[in-house]
Specification:
Order of helices and strands: HHHHHHHHHHHHHHHHHHHH
Number of strands: 0
Helix content: over 70%
Strand content: under 5%
Largest sheet: none
Mean pLDDT: 87
Length: about 375
Amino acid sequence: MSLDQLAGELLKGLNAFTAGNLIMIGVSVILLYLAIWKEYEPVLLLPIGFGCLLANLPLTGMTTGGIFTVLYNAGIVTELFPLLIFIGVGAMIDFSPLLAQPRMALLGAAGQFGIFGTLILAVLIGFPLNQAASIGVIGAIDGPTSIFVASKLAPELLAPIAVAAYSYMSLIPIIQPPLMRLLTTKAERRIQMEYAPRPISRRVRIAFPVVVTLSVGLLVPEAAPLISMLMLGNLMRESGVVDRLNRTSQNELINIATLFLGLTIGATMNAEKFLNGATLAVLGLGLLAFVLDTVAGLIFGKILSRLSGGKINPLIGAAGISAFPMAGRLVAKMAQDEDSDNFLLMHAMGANTAGQLGSVMAGGVLLALVSSILF
């Protein structure tokens, strides 16, 4: 081999490197910065950012028939990764605050408004119904649900939808507080809600995941895969008889699935597919969906506050989204910033767990509606 041929071989990666690749590597660096230095959901953003970095190294073969193609086909196409993550999420969730305060389910329902509002707007600006529905689900701020719906309805938009869902989830501490201050008064934020924990029996806590799975499976079959895995994890937690499985679900299982999911989603962020007008529209509409969900929750919280004679702090409405437990913790922190003696955590967690269930239900409803119209 001549020196010129050798130099050509050594430089072929640089020769294939484009301005688009450079831009996307810049995006990957931003994601890694947010994960490492700002510590915004590093478990999610770090593998996504590194996967994006790898996707934009030309000629490696990793994203075209290599490891990431295998992971994509095994975990995304089959919906395996989101379902495994939901087992772990279910094992982590304590539904007792919701069971003790059933009215919090109303806030979980209000927190899904942005999904359907954004769907309508996406259709009006030209997205086909299947893509509009997938974009709207970003508003659930629930990565597994967004991926599950998008992989069925609009796999061509899976990368920007997944990135938007996980990125906005990590940016909850930045996006939600200004909306909370804008839509609530200082006096409202200082409202204290007494929490007199109503004992929830072990039988009720065990029956809950079984009843929810049966109810959703019969009423909204399209949501059954997600809700059943969520409830399986919760049943393992509440039964108290499978401690090893419960601990594994909360730790090794969800961590491994999240790692592979993040890397695989990041690996779909190559310049050719990601740098286009549709991606920007998806990111913008996804942010709008998140904002609308938060606004709807806060407005409904204010309505409940008025109806209760000022006994309900409207901040808890912002926790009615699926981002568990970040949204609930943020609401509790906001209340304590206003009054150090104000403890809203259990109320906020009740709304937050209701939002988790609400997002899965909303995703199932969208799948059912869109499938019946288009297919």
